[in-house]
């Protein structure tokens, strides 16, 4: 169905229905609903009404009689299901709503209670709807006999209520339900149901039994009924078994008396725990336990049975998928049980270790490894179990092999994020595995970028920062390499070129190697893949990741690391994988981060003077790395002074001056051409400003720079006919040159303005009339103007 | 548990702009607790907020689906069955998941699991820390049922006017947002019951 068709259907049905038309339609609905026999006309009308109400985000006003009639129809005992569902849907779609006066107080029929509840629970709990629904549901639950077909409508309501408002139930209600859950979970019938003669779904368990239930592989059931037991027809209590298990984990979490996951036994020391675990290894006399503990015991048995049942080879694909989901749920449940009662730990550990060993060799069940790893992280300490081996296996094998599965990649990264608080000593394994984790990111960047932005601060430390930055910058190249590997798995061995092999191996490594490789040859080789959509998507995500990386790193980077990173930025800025627009975006981030590094460690400029000189000396940087060059030049102007680092020498200042002057000369004198486009005015102004700053610190240079600035000004005022310097650009250059010249006429003021001391950042500096900068500037301007006036006049 | 289920339009990855992303059907199970905002909230405002939140999810699903399709080089037509009687190969349909941070747009952290079939997107909005394998399986099941029983892929189908069937399916297979561990036989039994109550 094309979107266009859908849209036109919608407008046809809505017909841009106006309020008066809607009123008329409501009256029609009222008439139809008031009839004795509710026929297809009524269904049709309600379907339209639902569409009208749901199609707009704004409230449509319905007549009060109409709304009231919808409510009564919903609660009418003999109303057909179709109409009831439509009434429920319309009322729910209008929620939250002030004109609702529906109540669940007198509803006896549990199916209707379920429908009413779905409307009431959508109101937002302003009038304690959740509590009243919950209480009503429990009253029905208490009054029902164990048999009877309608309890299945109640359990989801109870589950929802517990979820929304965990503490609205009293302890006896909690105990009652826990007892019933035990019955349904553990003691459901193991005989198949009989087909109901009227074509319905349920049968009374006491009728003639057609045979035992089977396991998913067809064998006769060996133990109690679970969600992995099958048959031709099911009995009511078997249905309740399914529902009970489906809601079990949430129930255990929310019904725990002292809060969601606190153990309800008093302070157990580890020693006590282990003693008790020996005792409870023989789980006798469980019927003497209080309801909550008994439920936990039965839940434990259920989990063990599911784990055993999952070893069977299912005959149908649907059952095979369910086995995997059951495995995950069983492990999650065991985790909750052990958190609530540490005495389960002893029995669980051996069971899970065996399960883990079994799953390691089964590629189809790999997603179940994540909750197991989570379990060992949560309980490893208490059980004195070394979870290292499990984590090693998880981090080194899984991402390499299964990065291309979007659901697994998502779950894996969520696992990393959610487990951060409990990694403990094992955090190192997570950190060293960042190359593998980045494979998940490189392949699935749209879905995982925000997760990684949150994860990065915990992944990076001073040992891995440099290597990680390289990897981030090469992320699109990694995507290309993974694509290559996926389509041609033997490319690694097939290539004759050892250099290519080596570099590819490095790029596709699983753990941090502690070394860095220059991947430029690989960039070239993989160039044809640079326009792949997946690579482009990854490239678009990199700037965000770089920002996250730097915000994390700058928190702990010391001077040495900052220097390393700054050099890395300079070096890599012209060694990037050539994805369209990638370089420009990355340069923007790198240049601003370079300045951040300098601001945090101003000595960087002095310490890296040699490398910075080299960088600014090359004219090609002007055009290929304009952003970086601008940042570096600006940083030199800001921080190359004694006030930031005592080791700064006059020779250094002079050297920089010479190099920058030469650079400025070259870019302004050379004619723009096809290969060398016009130099951006920002570069010119920043060069002029930096030169002036340097001159203010080494005052022998002032005449030279003044001369240069005058030349620049006249050049800007009278551009050569061949240059296409536009008016605005020329104006900016001219203005800046003039300002700088003015400043230089009073060298001590220039020094004050252009090389402010650290106190400048103090507010006092600016409030005190003796030191305020604006005042100084105004003074200078007036003096200079007067001088000029004197000269002229 | 599931907080919401929605069906919305999916524009083709190459389409420039064929109108906005529209939510065709949505069902919210329960409601988020009202925030601790001292201002009194009109019920209307709450409803408007809820609709906007669902639309925001739909837009993000559409965007994720489009990006995934583009990255894998697939077109939506790849999924078109030869005849309208053949089942759509759902195991090849694009599927994915993403997390929504607290406040954006829902109050609490939530996870969205989605599946795209031709021009329709289906999504489950889950609470955090749900069993994603179960959620994915449930979503596939719901989509299969909806495609079969509403015949969504035939040109004359009009899901907008058949909300009762959607409600009927949800009431049985996702009651109040409860994800159910249903084995194949259970599904068959429930489906028979549904077909009996709603003859095609």
TrEMBL record, chain A:
InterPro entries: AP5Z1, AP5Z1_ARM, ARM-like, TPR_AP5Z1_C, TPR_AP5Z1_N. Residues 322-439 form the AP-5 complex subunit zeta-1 ARM repeats domain. It comes from the Eukaryota. Residues 451-783 form the AP-5 complex subunit zeta-1 C-terminal TPR domain. GO terms for cellular component: AP-5 adaptor complex. Residues 17-281 form the AP-5 complex subunit zeta-1 N-terminal TPR domain. This is AP-5 complex subunit zeta-1 isoform X5. It comes from Vulpes vulpes (Red fox).
From TrEMBL, chain B:
GO terms for cellular component: AP-type membrane coat adaptor complex; cytosol; late endosome; lysosome; nucleoplasm. InterPro entries: AP-5_subunit_s1. One of its GO terms (biological process) is double-strand break repair via homologous recombination. It holds the Pfam family AP-5_subunit_s1. This is AP-5 complex subunit sigma-1. The gene is AP5S1.
